[in-house]
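Quick one: structure tokens for this chain, please?
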Amino acid sequence: MRFFAAACSLLLVAACEVTDPNTLPVGTALSQVTEAEQASLGALLSRNLRDPASVQFRGWQAYNLSNGDRAICGEMNGKNAYGGYVGFEPFYLRMRGGAVIASQTVDAYAAEACRQAASGQMSVNPEVG
């Protein structure tokens, strides 16, 4: 019985380490986000929010990816219908040649993508863009 339990545990660990076949591992290197990029990307990120002019940003980080793309991460805080700020949430943008080809805001995917980028290795879908 112990052997069966150990074998099942091993299979579960192995299954968790299987990568998505639609992604490609890429290396990341920390780079700078310019003020002009912050302004233009901030406008892009906030344009569909309730009060775009009041959105707050912090923690801007950029990463050059080994496939030539660029990842931009940070946090944003917007107002709700009652006029109160909801709290800072992560955002993630992937850029190619100055154009945004993928973006995620306010969810666990954005936080995970930014965590991976900061670690120096992440997986991206090469078909995006």
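The chain has a mean pLDDT of 85.
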